[in-house]
Amino acid sequence: MTVDSKFYAGGDGKISALLNPYEQTRNFDISGENVNELIAGCSESKEKLEKLYNMFKDSVFAVAFGITSDYHLSEDCVAETFVRLTQVKRFSAKKGDGKGFILTIARNVALEFRRKYKRENESSDIYIRSYGEADKTVENSIYINHLLEYLNDKQRQVIVLKCCSELTFKEIAKIMKCPESTVKSRYKKAIAILQEKAGADK
Question: Which one, 65, 80, 126, 152, has least CB within 10 Å?
């Protein structure tokens, strides 16, 4: 398989390009205020829930896959995340962090599903795929999954949250419930490992 390791030479920008090579164009306002309002009303409005789903399904899938390493289980996590979003009773449209709130639910669901369904002997030769772009990204995705296997669980989560979901270190720290400095350290170490392994696979 030929994948140019120079993608990794420039740090997170190149990593992001390889992890998420087909950037999708969304005609949504994803400002914090708009997301918060959609969350606050999604339990009573299918239209608002559908908007949230279209805005965040890829990010939720990426978070779930970073934890489960299982494509089909991650799809189930996406569905369950938005089901649980409709069951939320307490969320402040004025003060809440909508994006972080959704991805926190996604992470919790993925951890729960992994404990409940994932078997030790299951193959992890599943690949990251963007919805609607699977046929275009298979080769790079298989390669990326191979590289991610060199990372431990928390390093992999940080990489996926940063590069696929495009979260800030501060947002990741809040989701993973750890200091921002710890997130940065894990990210730096993970990037170094990926660069080394990408070079080894040339």
Answer: 152
| Distance from C-alpha of 113 to C-alpha of 24, rounded to nearest angstrom | 28
Q: Which of 183, 165, 171 lies closest to 61 in space, CA to CA?
A: 165
Q: What is the pLDDT of residues 84-127, one digit of tens each?
A: 999 988 777 777 788 889 999 999 999 999 888 865 434 444 44
In angstroms and rounded to an integer, the radius of gyration of the C-alpha atoms of the chain is: 17
Question: Could you give the CA distance from residue 199 to residue 193 in angstroms, rounded to a whole number?
Answer: 10
CB 64 within 8 Å of CB 77? yes
Tell me, what amino acid is at 51? K
- What CATH class has 5-200? mainly alpha
pLDDT tens column, 52-65: 999 999 889 888 88
| 3 state SS of 200 | helix
